[in-house]
Specification:
Layout (H helix, E strand, L loop, with lengths): L5 E6 L4 E6 L3 H20 L7 E3 L4 E4 L2 E4 L2 E5 L11 E7 L3 H14 L6 E8 L4 E10 L17 E12 L18 E6 L2 E6 L3 E3 L1 H5 L10 E3 L1 H13 L7
Parallel strand pairs: 7-8
Antiparallel strand pairs: 1-2, 1-5, 3-6, 4-5, 6-7, 8-9, 9-10, 10-12, 11-12, 13-14
């Protein structure tokens, strides 16, 4: 019997069922706390309650596969039960980073662009590091227009931004061997007795991609600065203290 605390991806075309066992405290706190910060930022802009609807681990189906996310939200304008979210947040321990990237690509490709942003969070306890990637659809490399290929290539899932937040040591700008889209300086932020090195900030979540309309002042893109991200990381690690055995 599969318990309720799981996330399932099912590829019916190749008869493959992937079951993500949950929840660990690290996994749940990572995606839920970042989602909470997102909602707080939207509320500060004056966005009315229930304008941005949480849909959690709702299952989404495609002809050959199905998937459940971690945290996901859709604007109230998407009022059909099976409407896709505009943002999905997925988290996992560092050894599952490749799986998280596959998840991001699944959401963007299978929603046909209805999912605008996927945030993946890789948790690295030994290094006290949180590693974030922001995935979106991006134009594919151009190719010459020919009779065989009269149309441009469709957009492809792309890692648009990479951020690392490391406690009490210099953050590596490239902890996974994958180059970030743009080089960013490392910013050190003090949070209580701990300091955090943040590389690649700010994390920007475009308002129009989230709510599907242009912002009206004081609405704007959600911007998580280095200070915001270090505060999130500090709360994350502070909530995971272990009792002496």
């Amino acid at each position: 019997m599969i318990g309720k605390h799981t996330r399932i991806t099912h590829h019916t075309d190749i008869d493959l069922l992937i079951i993500k066992l949950m929840p660990s405290a690290e996994h749940e706190i990572a995606h839920l706390s970042l989602a909470e910060d997102l909602i707080l930022e939207l509320n500060r802009m004056g966005l009315r309650k229930r304008t941005f609807i949480p849909i959690g681990g709702t299952k989404f189906n495609r002809p050959n596969s199905s998937k459940e996310g971690d945290s996901a939200y859709k604007p109230a304008s998407r009022d059909w039960k099976d409407d896709w979210p505009t943002i999905v947040i997925e988290s996992g321990l560092s050894e599952g980073l490749d799986r998280l990237r596959i998840d991001a690509q699944w959401w963007l490709s299978n929603s046909r662009g209805d999912v605008r942003i996927v945030i993946i969070i890789s948790i690295m306890p030994p290094q006290k590091r949180l590693y974030i990637e922001k995935w979106c659809l991006s134009p594919a490399p151009a190719h010459p227009v020919t009779r065989a290929h009269p149309n441009p290539n469709p957009p492809v899932p792309t890692n648009m931004q990479t951020i690392t937040i490391t406690q009490n040591q210099a953050a590596s700008p490239n902890p996974t061997g994958q180059s970030a889209p743009t080089a960013q300086p490392t910013i050190t932020i003090q949070q209580g007795a701990s300091s955090y090195a943040v590389n690649g900030s700010p994390l920007i979540l475009e308002f129009q991609d989230l709510i599907l309309r242009p912002p009206v002042l004081p609405e704007d893109d959600v911007v998580f600065t280095a200070a915001d991200l270090s505060d999130w990381a500090h709360s994350f690690w502070a909530s995971l203290k272990q009792r002496d055995s």
